[in-house]
Amino acid sequence: MSLISCNNLTVKIADTQVCENLTLSIKTRENWAILGMNGCGKTTLLHSLAGLLLPQSGDINIGTINLNTLPRREVAQQLGLLLQHQEDHFPGTVLEAVLIGRHPHLKSWQWETESDEQLVIDTLKLVGLEHFSQRSILTLSGGERQRVALATLLVQQTKIRLLDEPVNHLDIHHQHEVMKILTKNDDNIANMFVLHDVNLAARYCDHALLIYGDGKVLQGTTTDVLSEKNLAELYLYPLQEIMHNNQRWFIAN
Amino acid sequence: MRPLSFIIFLSVMSILLITGSLMVGSVSIPLKTVWMTIIDPGAQGASLIVTELRLPRTLAAFATGALLAQAGALMQVLVRNPLADPYILGVSGGAATAVLIGMLLGLTSAFGLTGLAFIGALIAMFLVFVIAHQKGNWTPTRLLLTGVVIAAGWGAAISLILTLSPANNLHGMLFWLMGDLSYSYSVSFAFSALIIGLIFSMLLSSQLNVLIRGDKLAATLGVNLKQLHIKIYILASLLTAAAVVQAGSIGFVGFIVPHLIRLTGLTDHRFLLPAATLGGGILVLVADTAARTLIAPQQLPVGIITALIGIPLFLFLLQRDAKQ
């Protein structure tokens, strides 16, 4: 069954035509990579799918229900979005910053329970921040802050996860740790990753959506879509494919 | 320190300081007389100074500070800017303009001036709301810039009125502008506003915890941004209006107190709001007591004292925080 889908979706921002009459269906346990050059509209598309921006035309459905007819709170119970930038103007602990991920699951008068806090502690451990719960978020490094944002998304416990550059600021160790955690997928989750690293896409994703920035898109399995020819056309830069240990790698020439 | 024990500590401090403030002044009144007067104001030996002068003034000071600190905490979340204070969007400027026009026209009754202040505050609030909200996309920056520009406009209007005013009006006008509790008209009004405001703030507090981490993040976590923005705006503006009506513009309280509370480690708004409310009350109460006793029988504008206490305290905590 498709967790999130769109029909005839047209998205435009300023002078950039992101997609035209796009029909897309993301199913349980699928991991999609969204690839494209800077400014082609990857983030805009992700925000449209999350309901933060209104598309020019077309429908977005969560399961079988139209996104626009759902209250924000119910959307947030099913769909989570990792933003590219975090706004930190005010102090707070890591624990507090992650705990807000539970917000859609709590009634307005309800306080977080022991189990909510335990979930946060466990999740911090998962992303390698087990000793950080009482640290101020204003003292974190870029990569640590990114993992706090990821933990916030994880404790939201949504079936659909949209991730805008999830490995931003992360070192190689944490890039792979994070991609493994997200694509582990024993919970019938679907992920959509905006990525700049083609090799992460080839390794962790089963589907890809290539956005060319002129309204043209290409979608399919990573095996089909990720090729020297398609990627060179996408990035306007020549790439070379090599096989190593049964894994495809793309190197910029 | 645990949040709840800190709030209890602030509550106890409030009661002690209110009592202390009733004892000191041009005439010292012993604790025994103060207690007796509070328990039974009609009793033999009860102090008229306490019932008629000090009690209303003390409570007005506490309520004003509490209103301002609460409004400041809300305003900082609304415009997502740590520099925001309750006056930043021009609510006090509108009130001051209306009051000064009233004074210029010879109005002297406290009731009339209070009414004018409230009308001025509402006009200012409505003006910023309508202009900032025009196209429906209300970003914190747009709201902040609109408010700051309109506030500058009120500032110019105030200067104009001061320039045109005869010399014998100027003293009263300047006192009002610097924050003055001797005009306080209705303490029960301020306390009602405070309690109703706190109830509404507390209902929003868990959403404030989310909103403070950013608009978009709040939206992805199920917050209805437009509704929440409007609720905070109305609440913060009305709280500010209630404070301005009571005492003119008392600077620093609404800006500094929420930060003071944050620097002690309370950042969850479900604790921050009540703690800031009590902390603001305490700061203005202490400042006002000093303002009316330091060079008694002469009085100082309370706004000067809040700055004298608030600024060093704030800088001290900021230094300590940087060292940790």
Features of the shown structure:
heterodimer, A: 253 residues, alpha/beta, Rossmann fold, six-stranded mixed sheet, four-stranded antiparallel sheet, 29% strand, globular, B: 324 residues, mainly alpha, ABC transporter involved in vitamin B12 uptake, BtuC, 13 helices, 77% helix
Summarize the structure.
Chain A is α/β, with parallel strands linked by helices. Chain A has helices at residues 42-49, 72-78, 94-99, 114-126, 142-155, 172-183, 198-204, 222-225, 228-235, and strands at residues 2-13, 16-27, 31-36, 57-62, 65-66, 79-82, 160-164, 190-194, 207-211, 217-221, 239-244, 247-252.
Describe this structure in words.
The complex is a heterodimer of chains A (253) and B (324). Chain A has 253 residues and is an alpha/beta fold. Chain A has one domain (2-252): Rossmann fold (3-Layer(aba) Sandwich). Helices cover 31% and strands 29% of the residues of chain A. In chain A, strand 7 (160-164), helix 6 and strand 8 form a beta-alpha-beta unit. In chain A, helix 4 packs across helix 5. The N and C termini of chain A lie far apart (40 Å). By secondary structure, chain B is mainly α. Helix content of chain B is 77%, strand content 0%. Chain B contains 13 helices and no strands. In chain B, helix 5 (110-133) packs antiparallel against helix 10 (225-247), helix 11 (253-263) packs parallel to helix 13 and helix 12 crosses helix 13 (302-323). The relative contact order of chain B is 0.17. The chains are: A alpha/beta (253), B mainly alpha (324).
List the helices and strands and how they pair.
The complex is a heterodimer of chains A (253) and B (324).
Chain A: E1 2-13, E2 16-27, E3 31-36, H1 42-49, E4 57-62, E5 65-66, H2 72-78, E6 79-82, H3 94-99, H4 114-126, H5 142-155, E7 160-164, H6 172-183, E8 190-194, H7 198-204, E9 207-211, E10 217-221, H8 222-225, H9 228-235, E11 239-244, E12 247-252
Chain B: H1 3-23, H2 31-39, H3 48-78, H4 91-104, H5 110-133, H6 140-164, H7 167-178, H8 187-211, H9 215-220, H10 225-247, H11 253-263, H12 269-293, H13 302-323
Helix pairs in contact in B: 1-3, 1-12, 3-8, 3-10, 3-11, 3-12, 4-5, 4-6, 4-7, 4-10, 5-6, 5-10, 8-10, 8-12, 11-12, 11-13, 12-13
